[in-house]
Automatic annotation (TrEMBL), chains A, B:
SUPFAM superfamilies: Xylose isomerase-like. It comes from the Bacteria. It comes from Nonomuraea turkmeniaca. This is Sugar phosphate isomerase/epimerase. InterPro entries: IolE/XylAMocC-like, Xyl_isomerase-like_sf, Xyl_isomerase-like_TIM-brl. The lineage of its organism: Bacteria, Bacillati, Actinomycetota, Actinomycetes, Streptosporangiales. Keywords: Isomerase. Residues 24-269 form the Xylose isomerase-like TIM barrel domain. GO terms for molecular function: isomerase activity.
Amino acid sequence: MTLSLNQWTTRHWSLPEAVDGSVRHGLEAIGLWREKVAEQGLAQSAKLVRDAGLRVSSLCRGGFLTAGGLPGEEGRQAFADALEENRRAIDEAAELGAACLVLVVGGLPGVKPGEPLGKGFSRDVAGARERVAEALAELAPYAGERGVKLALEPLHPIYCPDRAVLCTLGQALDLALAYPEEQVGVVVDTFHVWWDPRLFEDIARAGSRIASYQVCDYLHPLPEDVLLGRGMMGDGVIDFRPITQAVLDAGYAGDVEVEIFNADIWAADPDEVVATMKARYEDVVLPHP
Amino acid sequence: MTLSLNQWTTRHWSLPEAVDGSVRHGLEAIGLWREKVAEQGLAQSAKLVRDAGLRVSSLCRGGFLTAGGLPGEEGRQAFADALEENRRAIDEAAELGAACLVLVVGGLPGVKPGEPLGKGFSRDVAGARERVAEALAELAPYAGERGVKLALEPLHPIYCPDRAVLCTLGQALDLALAYPEEQVGVVVDTFHVWWDPRLFEDIARAGSRIASYQVCDYLHPLPEDVLLGRGMMGDGVIDFRPITQAVLDAGYAGDVEVEIFNADIWAADPDEVVATMKARYEDVVLPHP
């Protein structure tokens, strides 16, 4: 396993700056975001990363597949739009040579990420999960034809209303197992899964289905904007070593991405953030420091 | 199933006021809190409830059993203190004739509820769960001898750091099944479990182990103090009817407690709160309104 910088950790760096920073700090891989790729242009982004000799450990992100659960024409159109957007994301992942496209599947239909409940949303969480399965049936073959692996990311249940009705690794894995391994895998992100009493059992069960291992800490208490509750490893409550060991034991040999959403870390000097990330990776993430 | 007022929903009412309010609104049961019972005195509280003809649907709460995970003498003493405190809670539940004593088992050792992380806490969530099992082995027979049923309450994973390392109904149930049914059951609280992809499977599996069914809504977004994110039924994201139906199908025939921690509801006229609670129970909680 080697360390990879998910570029949202240093979100004020442009893609060229993140590529340059990764090389300067001796990293071999980088996790990209579609927004940053779009800023730079897809072909240019792919060339920059390739010329720098970096692997693309993941592309973030596709998903938001649940709005089809809204009634009538609105739902049908939302479902079609989501599939189209995800096909674009798959095409981008293919051109970038990304190891996987991360899918954040979406929350309850009609609940917008990070916004208060409006009118006309759906409380049907089971139905939303069915929409995800239906979308996956469309997208997995499309991804497979382009050599892209979709990586289903279970999110912490606090994000179930607005971001992901996939709440546990086991649930994501059950969905993934319906498809060939090269088409659909799962993400193990410590922030989202550390509390799960079935975590170690499900990591072992996932085995080669683990498409991405992402690490960051879980801060306590969470800040008011719970999206920003991700901390540098060692600053929160997670005991990383047993999780890393379990992921290794499951056979994972990919990159370890550090993906942190945190106002203080974004405000800091990105070079210092990367230096700290490397030190903490050695100190608290690797099973044998 | 009949409706019960958990007295924390009207927390500015004293115990006599809550008993009087429950009777005035035609309720048959009440959920009590130890703090409120202590204010009034145990014997007097028991007499008030009995004379009013109310069932005590639960006593909240025992638990906080994990501090024994701290090292050395501090841990040993904390474990002994927790057992002693829980034996007192069991004695109180017996005297009140409560249908169960709710256990909120505690979070990571050394993390104080609602407080920032201090020094010297433990990240060993697996170890904390073992401490809970050890404590239960001590407390279940003690409860059994006094005719008290312990009700293990899984809390939403957001409370895992500081309040409950029991995060899912399935996990609570697995612990409970090691003991006779009259000694240990589980709580199904909609706020804590609505997101769980295994919820309906685990409610069915729980069957007669369901010792308490508590309802309140899950607000989105949660307020800054996440403890206060509980809302009146209908104000949040939970689809209650299928959950209530599943609890009924599992054979539960006890009371349905409404337990809401919410600053606005606490500031409102308690009589209006109880009236709204009754209306919403009919409108959105019962499977067939």
